[in-house]
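Action item from last meeting closed. Structure (350 res):
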């Protein structure tokens, strides 16, 4: 999937440490930039001579301006750079991707922490506009770090009776003790027992934020009787999750003398060799001067999803592929290590 050079139309502060960036999409590219609520964009730029790309969720509903939310992350090179963006600057932007999307749900429970609110803004706006009931549980450190607070308040005023919002703060005391603290399994269970949320009634439950929060909340929802197929999740960070698996003996043996890798992209076939110095297929391709699709390089965004048509691989981590995809032969190139002497990956097999 190719990048498009888009112009920044607007930059506005939406929290003390976050901005919303709106892009001007030319008429010739509008078809490529149609999106579904919950999808993300991959942004790419040069920072101090280094090519950097990051994924950011779209905060606006389909049909609105193309806008993403970007929170400054400590030592985050792209997020720090983005805080200084100005209208008129140009960035390389990949068309929308992602499977964390809403459909025709009539009762949605949205649980987000920090910048995990970004895709929820699109999901909530779209769902409310078509008459759905939405409950949003949103966790932050303090009032000043609540992203899109004004927009959330505007949605509450516009959709009286449809939208319920519960703000949880971990470092600022609120009048209601229950609303103090972080989002975790215990908090979700108490909110449910207090009838402030009704997970069992929701036909779509969406979780977005750090990995540790998602794992805890998903477990609590399961214990509350929510069917797994109704729970949708998107990890913004791998915090609290297991570290990458070490390279297996089979992978070590495979790359010892080099693995011949063939990739299929846009109908064309290209080959390169992966050696012991390469951490993944994406790294090996880059060393050979070939750019494969990728964004997060953390196994979370699925931009590098491809299908193994010959050979075999193992993954260091996987936070995005579903079990049926793995069974069907799909892998994440940014996490893939060959365990065979040859490997063919088809990026066109979507």
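Sequence:
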């Amino acid at each position: 999937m190719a990048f498009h050079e888009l112009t920044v139309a607007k930059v506005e502060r939406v929290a003390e440490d976050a901005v919303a960036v709106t892009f001007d999409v030319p008429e010739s590219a509008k078809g490529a930039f149609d999106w579904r609520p919950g999808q993300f964009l991959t942004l790419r730029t040069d920072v101090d001579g280094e090519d950097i790309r990051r994924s950011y969720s779209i905060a606006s509903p389909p049909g609105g301006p193309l806008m993403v939310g970007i929170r400054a992350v400590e030592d985050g090179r792209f997020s720090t750079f983005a805080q200084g963006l100005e209208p008129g600057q140009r960035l390389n932007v990949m068309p929308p991707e992602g499977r964390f999307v809403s459909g025709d749900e009539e009762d949605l429970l949205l649980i987000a922490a920090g910048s995990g609110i970004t895709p929820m803004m699109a999901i909530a706006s779209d769902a409310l506009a078509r008459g759905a009931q939405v409950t949003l549980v949103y966790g932050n450190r303090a009032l000043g770090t609540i992203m899109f607070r004004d927009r959330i308040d505007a949605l509450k005023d516009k959709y009286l009776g449809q939208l319920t919002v519960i703000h949880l703060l971990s470092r600022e005391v609120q009048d209601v003790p229950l609303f103090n603290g972080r989002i975790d399994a215990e908090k979700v269970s108490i909110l449910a027992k207090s009838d402030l949320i009704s997970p069992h009634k929701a036909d779509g439950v969406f979780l977005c934020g750090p990995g540790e929060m998602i794992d805890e909340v998903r477990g609590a929802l399961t214990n509350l009787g929510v069917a797994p197929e109704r729970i949708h999740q998107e990890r913004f960070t791998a915090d609290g999750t297991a570290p990458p698996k070490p390279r297996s003996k089979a992978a070590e043996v495979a790359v010892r003398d080099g693995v011949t890798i063939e990739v299929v992209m846009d109908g064309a076939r290209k080959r390169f060799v992966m050696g012991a110095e390469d951490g993944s297929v994406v790294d090996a391709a880059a060393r050979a001067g070939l750019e494969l699709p990728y964004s997060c390089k953390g196994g979370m965004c699925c931009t590098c999803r491809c299908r193994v048509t010959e050979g075999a691989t193992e993954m260091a981590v996987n936070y995005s592929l579903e079990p049926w995809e793995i069974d069907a032969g799909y892998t994440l190139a940014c996490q893939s290590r060959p365990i065979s002497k040859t490997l063919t990956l088809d990026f066109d097999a979507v």
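Note appended to the action item: The chain has three domains: 4-96, 107-237, 249-346.
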